[in-house]
Amino acid sequence: MATIYRAQYLVPGDAPPVEGGAFLAEDGMIAARGTLAELQRAYPEAPVVDFGEAIIAPLLVNAHTHLELTDFPRWAAKAGMAEDPSGFVDWILRLIKTKKSLVGRDYQLSVANGIEQSLAYGVGTVGDILAYYPAREAYRSSSLDGLLFLETLGQDPALIRQAEQRLDQALKEGQGGRVEVGLSPHSPYTIRGEYLERLYRRCRQQGLRCSTHLAESPDEVEFIEHGRGPIASCFYPFVGWENYLPPTSHMRPVAYLDKHGGFFQENLLVHGVQLNDDEIELLARKGMHLALCPRSNAKLKVGRAPAGKLLNAGVNLCLGTDSLASCDSLSIWDEMAFAARWFRGELDAPTLFAMATSGGARALGLHERLGTLGVGKQAGFQILKPKTKVAAAEIFDYFISPGCGADIAQVYHHGRAQLSGLDP
Fold first, then answer.
1. In the chain, which end has fewer C-beta atoms inside a 10 angstrom radius, N or C?
2. 48 near 25, Cβ under 8 Å?
3. Is residue 94 over pLDDT 80?
4. What is the per-residue pLDDT for 420?
5. Using an 8 Å Cβ cutoff, are 210 and 180 in contact?
6. Are strands 267-271 and 289-292 parallel, antiparallel or unpaired?
7. Per residue, what are the HEC states of the chain?
8. How far, in Å, CA of 319 to CA of 276, rounded?
């Protein structure tokens, strides 16, 4: 049944906010948009859901997250690993130590918890990295859209062959729920060069979306370029890779990834903290997308991404929460609020909102049906009821204010309300 939805403000994401704006949803899709009067004249039989003094906005896109680590804070506390890490590699070691006591069901429940939290935070689309492939079952009954990137890494050739067999089987079994399946070669410092090249070649040949962590920390730069530092001296021995230290490349991570075939538009890059001007220009020239995770970067003390330079160069930027192993919530509203302070003077409020919606959808290759409330797009939206009056000119500033996500009154996925008992 066709239904008209109306509020004090409609923020479609592909046009300025409309006071008294409304749209018509039918069969989970947006069929028309305009003022309430216009839509009622065109569709006199359609019932109207009027949210009153509220804001209708698109569902948000969490372009980079690890929902299988949603329960990490509880796991870490139980394992005695709850204190703050001393650095990036120390954080990795704590993560590995914490995961050693887990079983498959832990990851399954953690993904399900992450999905539930994402829905409550007004997220409609995710770029989720998954290392424990069976946990994708949690998506089968979920209304979330997006990409489920199957993570892989390794240095030992024998173990890599086993990893490829698991990957082959997971890809053969296909997607779960509404999420499409892609690949995530973890990072330049965790994958043997020839394996990295095979993965990227496979993505190109099979049309698979891909995502790679890149240039996240100074430790990564030092290891890739010079073959030394904490990754070489602490991480590799800890995971039994001390006999697989790669030769010194004399290349920074971006050049290394380019050499191994990682620069194609379907490969969503993540973090990009350690980028220089020439590397930013290369990303722009190649048409790459980059997911920024400022709260995670701040917590791990790896630095600040050159967001303003990336934006000015024309790189499509989006936002991700990373995981609850390095972030305090799975809320993209919280990520926007933090990013507004973290990148003060570089990214304004409308830009941050675009990164959290249309930018994320474009980065995941889903912009034709998600990311805005345009005609022909899915009817995925959320209703915010501000505690104080918000003028039209203040909407985007309101969106990046701390606590904005707490004003969510209802979320709709595919034209259906998700949060019970909160309909107007």
1. N
2. no
3. yes
4. 45
5. no
6. parallel
7. CCEEEECCEECCCCCCCEECEEEEEECCEEEEEEEHHHHHHHCCCCCEEECCCCEEEECEEEEEECHHHCCHHHHHHHHCCCCCCCCHHHHHHHHHHHHCCCCHHHHHHHHHHHHHHHHHCCEEEEEEEECCHHHHHHHCCCCCEEEEEEEECECCHHHHHHHHHHHHHHHHHCCCCEEEEEEEECCCCCECHHHHHHHHHHHHHHCCCEEEEECCCHHHHHHHHHCCCHHHHHHHHHCCCHHHCCCCCCCCHHHHHHHCCCCCCCEEEEECCCCCHHHHHHHHHCCCEEEECHHHHHHHCCCCCCHHHHHHHCCEEEECCECCCCCCCCCHHHHHHHHHHHCCCCCCHHHHHHHHHHHHHHHCCCCCCCCCCCCCCECCEEEECCCCCCCHHHHHHHHCCCCHHHHEEEEEECCEECCCCCCC
8. 20
The tokens for 14 are: 């592909």
Q: Quote the pTM value.
A: 0.97
CB 121 within 8 A of CB 331: yes
Residue 35 confidence (pLDDT) above 60: yes
Phi-psi region of 213 (alpha: psi -120 to 50; beta: other; left: phi over 0): beta
The pLDDT of residue 419 is 64
Can you say whether the dihedral through the CA atoms of 170, 364, 117, 379 is positive or negative? negative
- HSE of 280, CA atoms in CB hemisphere, 13 A: 17
Residue 225, classified by CB atoms within 10 Å of its CB into exposed (0-12), middle (13-18) or buried (19+), is middle
Q: Which of 336, 214, 212, 211 is nearest to 271 (CA)?
A: 214
Distance between CA 76 and CA 61 in Å, rounded?
A: 27
The end-to-end CA distance of the chain, in Å, is 18
- Buried/exposed code over 81-120 (b: 16+ C-beta within 10 A; e: otherwise): beeebebbbebbbbbeebbeebeeebbbebbbbbbebbbe
pLDDT at 424 over 70: no
Picking from 185, 189, 186, the residue whose alpha carbon sits closest to that of residue 236 is 189
